[in-house]
Amino acid sequence: MTESIFKRRRARHLLVSLLALTGVFLYLILCTSSLQGGQIFSRHPARKEFSGGVKQYNNQNYQLALQTFRELYNYPEFNPVATATHLMLMKTYQRLQLYRQSVQFGKEFLSTYPSSSYLDDVYFTMAESFVGMEQYMNGASYYAYAITQAEDEALARMSLEQLLKVTDAFLNTEQVQALADGAIGRDESNIFQLALLQEYILDGEMSLATTTAMELERSVMKDMLIPTFQALRKAISLDAKKQMSIAVLAPLSGAYADIGRELLDGVRYALAQANDLANINLLPMDNQGTGLETVHQMQRMADHYRVVAVIGPVYSENVVAAATTAGISSLPLITPTATENGLAGLNAYVFQLSPDYETRGRAAAQYATDSLGLRLFATVSPADEQGKALTDAFTAEVEKRGGDIVDQLWYSDTPEDLNDQWRHLREVGFDLRTQFEGGIDTSHIVSDSLRETLSDSDFVEVFQKNYENYTEEIDSTDITLKYIEGMYFPIRNRDIDYIAGQFAFYNFDTQVLGNVEWYDLEKLNEYSSYINNMFIFSDYYIPEEAITYRGFVSDFRQEMNTTPSNLHLYGYDTMNLLLDLIRDGNMTRASIGRALGSIHQVSGIARVHTLDGISPRVNQSVRVLQYSRQRVRLEDTITTGVRKIHPLRSLLSE
Predict the structure, then answer these.
(1) Looking at beta carbons, which pairs linking 469-478 to residues 24 or more positions away fall under 8 Å?
(2) Overall average pLDDT of the 274-283 stretch
(3) Mind spelling out the 3-state secondary structure of 248-302?
(4) Is residue 447 part of a domain?
(5) Residues 287 and 214 both lie in one domain
(6) Last residue of a domain, one of 235, 256, 283
């Protein structure tokens, strides 16, 4: 079978990564060999200490290596490895992200040892430190110095690769042109002309790219630059478009790596199918699930010249960490999964594709009152952040729409025994029963057959005697209570095993309403006799029985070697939403941000997206699912909004 576009892209990126890693390892081997040759293998104690420091460095024990090299740098006697010590000291500072110290020692090295054979390595390390400090112009210049000074071809190739990455990601055309204009000597000029050629190609400026390529052809070029020039010249095409990158910020390593990788694979699959958008590149960024790494990666992407949007992060707390940078850099941050209230309110460039707790609770109340016609409700909720947020939103919306919450049952930890709460709820139900039926049902106190054999005075006497002792008996669970019309259960999935059985035991005849945690067909079927015909309010729905979805699953399995999960679908739908905006001509961060804010009821496979509702940039579309006869079907998609009141009703109420 013909190899798919997705596999070709994946193979290309893998090849580039392997080549880059090969270059790095080759360079480290050569560097270590040069440091260890001739200077180390001696009886002098400084050389022995230096050898130990190099070993610590190669084992990534940078703190120990730093301590060793600092002691050698301040060696009180003659130090036969002084220059190598100086170099390794600045390299170790760079590895520890102490960039200013690394640059400081680099400048000192250049002043102290201007003819050293280590100059190329010093320039390269200083370039890495400048990039770490986000001084990208300086970084590019020092990579160029490393190339022109390098006798080691592996180091020269790696320096060129890094220079082209930095100019592509962090510098615009004008800045690269300035570097070319300020170049000293033919070799340095050729290096920056190559960077400028790459910039023109990636920007789709093929006329300028052709002119630059012709100028380079007339120049005498170092041998190591020729393969890069030939590759860029082949890339020149009149049909080429400006290259753009979409970043995915997710935990790709650590405890939550499986979540991040599923989301990323869904994004990748969507891009692989976009045959008309070959100019879009994917940039996976690993935040390791931590706030600190989220901030670090966001700063990198904010400076990345071609990144026009970020998909992620996964967790709400990481969205908070990323939001400030997104706002400052006008970089759209699109989280497919975060659900906490208030995230999109952090600034105008944060977008929540998963409805927040407030929206979910409002949607359940809106549908229950307006579509199902229910008015009297009780809630059963865990007393955690999610349970409180969903319950508060549901309660407020019910009351806003003319309904009433007659009681709320709260629990903490595992709800193994909620007998006291359920009994109280039963009492509320009996109070409602008395209110609606005008008194106590005497059939449960004196049987009809006995009533027929007694006179009125005898009946009253028997009734009063029985009623005095009937306080507990009248609340028998044999009596079905129907006056609580709807009961909302915004609970955790693991709590269903406890709540479902207790709810059935206490015998309420009510419409059961649940949150997305109930969207678990296996558990629903286990308790189907208790909760049949319940409504579930979910951010997504997987149309497993639809022919089109079955075709999608088949293709996805063939390409990805796995069955798509809801996380795969989140990534797929999110990427397609972005790609459609780009197809419509939104090519910059600002225009994509504006377009996202006006999204209204755009359907993906699993979700409907509405970001222009009463809570800006928060998805207001919620799926209404009904569980009946051991099947979950899509009943409706509700977009939350203000209650619509007929003008005549408004006049009559005044």
Answers:
(1) 470/444, 470/445, 473/444, 474/430, 474/440, 474/444, 474/445, 475/423, 475/426, 475/427, 475/430, 476/444, 477/426, 477/505, 477/506, 477/507, 478/507
(2) 91
(3) EEECCCCCCHHHHHHHHHHHHHHHHHCCCCCCEEEEEEECCCCHHHHHHHHHHHH
(4) no
(5) no
(6) 235
Report the number of distinct structural domains present in the chain.
Answer: 3
Amino acid at 459: F
The Cα–Cα gap between 159 and 121 comes to: 10
Domain with 252 in it = 241-355+543-619
State the amino acid at position 616 in one-letter form. P
**Residues contacting 82, CB < 8 A, separation 6+:** 75
Reported confidence tier of residue 478, pLDDT bands at 50, 70, 90: low
Determine if the pTM surpasses 0.85. no
Say if CB 550 and CB 563 are below 8 A apart.
no
DSSP for residue 352: E
Contact, 86 vs 109, CB < 8 A?
Answer: yes
Asked if residue 410 has pLDDT above 90, the reply is yes
Task: Kindly state whether residue 457 falls inside one of the protein's structural domains.
Answer: no
When pLDDT is cut at 50, 70 and 90, the band that residue 354 belongs to is very high
Rounded-to-integer distance, Cα 313 and Cα 481, Å: 46
Q: How confident is the model at residue 6 (pLDDT cuts 50, 70, 90)?
A: very low
Looking at the fold, whether 499 and 530 belong to one and the same domain comes out as: yes
Residues 318 and 365 in one domain: no
Nearest Cα neighbor of 484 from 634, 374, 581, 586 is 374
Q: How far apart are CA 174 and CA 182, in angstroms?
A: 12
- Beta strand residue intervals within 53-177, DSSP E: none
> What pLDDT is stored for residue 647 in this prediction?
42
- Say which amino acid occupies 494: R
Q: What is the CATH number of the domain that holds 328?
A: 3.40.50.2300
Q: Which CATH number characterizes residue 124's domain?
A: 1.25.40.10
Indicate whether 629 belongs to any domain.
no
Cis peptide, bond prior to residue 313, ω within 30 of zero = yes
Average model confidence (pLDDT) across the chain: 86
What are residue 382's DSSP bridge partners? 411
Token pair 């996964």 is found at: 314
